[in-house]
Design brief:
Elements: E1 15-16, E2 23-25, E3 31-33, H1 36-44, H2 67-76, E4 86-90, E5 94-97, E6 102-106, E7 112-118, E8 126-132, H3 137-142, E9 148-150, H4 153-159, E10 172-175, E11 178-179, H5 190-203, E12 210-211, E13 213-217, H6 221-232, E14 238-242, H7 245-248, H8 258-264
Parallel strand pairs: 4-12, 7-13, 9-10
Antiparallel strand pairs: 1-2, 2-3, 4-14, 5-6, 6-13, 7-8, 10-11
């Protein structure tokens, strides 16, 4: 973003409601959509301070996953700053839900994520996954999992001005039990892996890596953002801690390598 009215803070309280993606808006009304994949890549590679320059209203969808961003970050490497890193430690359970699903954060000594999805399309169905998000697990397990939708959803997304460059090459499109995307799935549970990727990107808007266990049950972008709102408005639900060497070593992204990323590309 350019400095001035075009700068948009990547914060939980700058999210504008949007059913299909995460959209950030500044006080001048300037907005950018579909930020979750690049934010997940930054968090999953251990980047905690970055400025992203973009010349359009939506982050490019690329292949529908975070791996193009991850490859770029790991190929260029990180610059280590002479400044302390602060993490957000969850102290007690915080939960937010609707009739569509729910999400919660509970205390954990290491960053954890669990997710459950249940879709009527037979190609997706019911999927569950739990991961310790420490170190390079995002790069190894999640970063190449693509966004997915039913064939009937494609027209709805375009009608809302989203995924305008979308095609079978940058999303997993299913129709009943059929996967229409050439080459099929990258993982048998690619859908739930992508939901976890999205959740990590949305949680990055907390402004600090989260030491806790995120559990999502049919949760989407709006639910995860509402969970952050509840976390930050619940007295005693969290504390900010300065990371020592031991704590820093268990954060997402630490130890991630380009070789691991290439293997899942």
């Amino acid at each position: 973003m350019q400095i001035g009215d075009n700068a948009i803070p990547a914060r939980w309280d700058r999210v504008e409601p949007s059913s299909l993606c995460t959209k950030l808006t500044n006080e001048a009304g300037i907005s950018v959509s579909t930020v979750e994949h690049v934010l997940a890549a930054l968090s999953g590679c251990g980047v905690h301070n970055a400025r992203i320059e973009i010349n359009g209203p939506e982050v490019p969808i690329l292949d529908g996953s975070a791996i193009p961003f991850v490859l770029g970050i790991l190929k260029h490497g990180l610059e280590y700053l002479d400044a302390p890193l602060t993490a957000l430690r969850v102290l007690r359970e915080v939960k937010f839900g609707t009739d569509q699903g729910w999400a919660k954060l509970v205390p954990s000594d290491v960053p954890m994520m669990s997710f459950h999805i249940n879709f009527d399309a037979a190609a997706i169905g019911i999927q569950d996954k739990t991961l310790n998000m420490s170190n390079g697990s995002f790069v190894r397990e999640l970063c190449n999992s693509r966004t997915f939708c039913r064939n009937s959803d494609v027209d709805a997304m375009r009608a809302n001005g989203l995924a305008l460059g979308g095609s079978l090459e940058n999303a997993v499109v299913v129709d009943g039990s059929d996967v229409l995307t050439p080459g099929g799935l990258r993982h048998s549970d690619e859908a739930v892996r992508h939901k976890m990727l999205d959740a990590l990107g949305d949680l990055t808007l907390a402004g600090a890596p989260i030491l806790g266990h995120y559990i999502g049950h049919r949760a989407g972008h709006a639910i995860t953002n509402s969970l952050l709102h509840k976390l930050f408005t619940s007295p005693g639900a969290f504390e900010l801690v300065v990371c020592d060497e031991t704590l820093s070593e268990i954060l997402p992204g630490v130890g991630a390598t380009l070789e691991e990323c290439v293997q899942v590309a």
